[in-house]
Amino acid sequence: MDFKLFKEMLKRIFFVLFTAAVLACHAAPKSQPVVDGVTNVKPDEQQQLVIREVVNLIESYNYKKLEINDSISSIILDKYIKSLDQGKNYFIASDIKEFEKYRYTLDDDFKNGDLSGPFYIYNVYAKRLNEYFAYSLAQIKNKFDFNQTDSYVYDREKMPWASSITALNDTWKKRVKYELINLNLAGTTGPKGIETLTKRYQNLQSQTSKTNNQDVFQILMDAFTESIDPHTNYFNPVNAIAFNEDMSRSFEGIGARLQLENEVVKISEIIAGGPAFKDKQLSPGDKIIAVAQGDGEFVDVVGWRLDATVSKIKGAKGTKVRLKVIPSGKEMSSKPVIISLVRDKIVLEETSAKKKVKTINQNGKEYKMGIITLPAFYADFKAANAGDKNYKSTTRDVRKLIDSLKNIDKVDAIVMDLRGNGGGSLVEAISLTGLFIDKGPVVQVKDLRGKIEVDEDEATGVTWDGPLGVMVDRLSASASEIFAGAIQDYGRGIVMGSQTYGKGTVQSSIDLNKLVNPSMLQRIAGIITKNKTTGTAPSSTTAADINLGQINLTMAKFYRVAGSSTQHKGVVPDVVFPSLYPMDKIGEDTEPSALPWDVIPSSNFKSVANLTAVKPNLIKNSEQRVANSLDFKYLKEDIAEMKKRDAETSVTLNEAKLKSERDAQEVKTLSRANELRAARGLPALKKGEKTTKQDAYDFIEDESLHVMGDFMQQAGSYVMNLGLGSTPKF
């Protein structure tokens, strides 16, 4: 985040880590125990450096101001084991007993750059996983009795660890049986079902064998950072690239989405506007078997991990890549086609802000509503810093959409749809709010020293001064909550939906490479070249090849302009609907390591309007519509059914009984669909008929638009304390 405080702290962080890196580099980790029967994955020198520096960062600059001690070590161990084997399907009791020796040592080990313990634990897990694959593959061809009344316990989390592999064999065997029953019910029976399941297990086994030390390190770091707080996160180099591409809504490459199928990379989608789209030689279903950089030699990529192949195909704008491709529908033995493409910058328009217009009839009067769907608060900071006048950002995109809705579509109101929007750029949340208010505070930020900074929209004027609604749900978080909270506190519009996630913390993204002396990176490169860990380094490694990844560090909390934190409590809508998502399973208040809720003094802001008197009627009218809505009725039934199923831990292995249960569910689903279709004047579906676009009816959006219709009809009769520079079109 672009805060003055962060810049100041970054200078101090650089000095601390510069010194720490030099001093700590000489510490030698303990010898890692060897696990027989598997290729032992080991940490490398740069990971040993990263763990030390992340400890330093957290202890020095995390908002919680905590020490990495024995208590944290214990939490990390439990989280790490759970992340590997949450269902207790692989580790046995003796493994867990052996791992206890690490319970109170991980804190000291991490400070010394020692990762031998966690990597040993992973290698034991890999061994158990191989035993599972070997046993299960042997069981697939066995004769199963699908008429028995036995059951498969798929959720063993609350059960004790199995006493031995022999004890787990029964669970593994029942899982195979359950998967065969599922194939039978799906129409893949007999030898075909056996062949399908065998290939599935072999593919899983093959992909698991490709796990490298970066994967293991990421799992460990997730367990570590989640033990501190839910939103301090470390990203290994591959994940850091993905995170930053998601934030910027762009990347450089050929413009194709890839997937792995039977050890071969296949094109799943061509992205509109990219080089592959313009060239028109590649198609979905084409298989890529080799990649060459420019005019260089081809490298065979069959059997590679997907991320490894992707890294070969992606590259800097303006560079050339050549692909050997087996066209869709042709056998692997066919002669490949060579396709040459020049990489370019791809803008992901489908994940950017979008608009649509809907008309509703409210008490005999029609209103044209503009809906802007915003999936995240994104910004291409790299392009902006490089001086690109057309850089991609949320505010820039939304401003264009508002201009179109206002001047071309002539809408009466605008609704910002932030459902599922997990946040993103805090700067964008502030500037987006500025499109709807005329200057003033948007969010308050309190740093780890207790200093409060008020961040304001400094732009004069507004882009939209008419009726405004904001849709939120349980997955709306962080920047979404800043925006919705500001709109609510200012009285600028009506917030509708369910209580939001409750993420009220601020993270700063730190490139770890920038905090370490270049000579240290060169020293590590030399060690890697000398040691040559198989499969993890090229023949010669330079400092430029060393990538330490990125940490998003919680360094502050944000507060609404009225002083309340969104932490834990989120934003409670003015008009509340039943939640699509389980409130007791999703949300900041479900995270054990989350920071608490609190309040600070209100900022000096002037509200746009006082909507207090309007809200009771909006709520009353909405509750009446919801009570009479079939869609909401079924939603409430689904919520109750979800809670019931959540308590279940096993499933029947009697094929006839399972089929009967699923048939009953299909009948219920079809009956529901036809009841809803009848209410909308649509013909009934027959069994097996596919649903249409008309069935994908967004009843929550529809109710939100009717709330806005009520709002526009009622708000005009109230005196508004305006602060927009012009009269809102209520």
Q: Could you characterize what this model shows?
A:
Helices cover 41% and strands 16% of the residues. The chain is built from 21 helices and 21 strands. Helix 16 links the parallel strand 16 and strand 17 (494-497). The radius of gyration is 28 Å and the shape is globular. 37% of the residues are buried. Mean pLDDT is 88; it is low at 1-7, 13-26, 533-538 and 717-730.
Quick structural gist:
The chain has 730 residues and is α+β, with helices and mostly antiparallel strands. The protein is built from 21 helices and 21 strands.
Q: Quick one: overall form? A: globular
Q: What is the CA–CA distance across the termini?
A: 36 Å
Uncertain spans, ≥5 residues at pLDDT below 50?
A: 1-7, 13-26, 533-538, 717-730
**Strands, count:** 21
Largest sheet: 6 strands, antiparallel
Strand content: 15-25%
Computed Rg:
28 Å
Overall residue-averaged pLDDT value: 88
Element layout with pairings:
Layout: H1 4-24, H2 45-61, H3 70-84, H4 93-99, H5 106-111, H6 116-140, E1 151-153, H7 165-185, H8 190-209, H9 213-228, E2 233-235, H10 237-248, E3 250-253, E4 256-261, E5 264-270, H11 275-279, E6 287-293, E7 299-300, H12 306-313, E8 320-326, E9 337-342, E10 344-347, E11 354-362, E12 365-373, H13 381-385, H14 394-407, E13 413-417, H15 426-433, E14 440-447, E15 452-457, E16 468-472, H16 479-490, E17 494-497, E18 505-511, H17 518-531, E19 550-559, E20 575-576, H18 615-627, H19 630-646, E21 650-652, H20 655-679, H21 699-715
Parallel strand pairs: 12-13, 13-16, 16-17, 17-20
Antiparallel strand pairs: 1-21, 2-19, 3-10, 4-5, 5-6, 6-7, 6-8, 8-9, 11-12, 14-15, 14-19, 18-19
Helix pairs in contact: 1-2, 3-6, 3-9, 6-7, 6-8, 7-8, 14-15, 15-16, 18-21
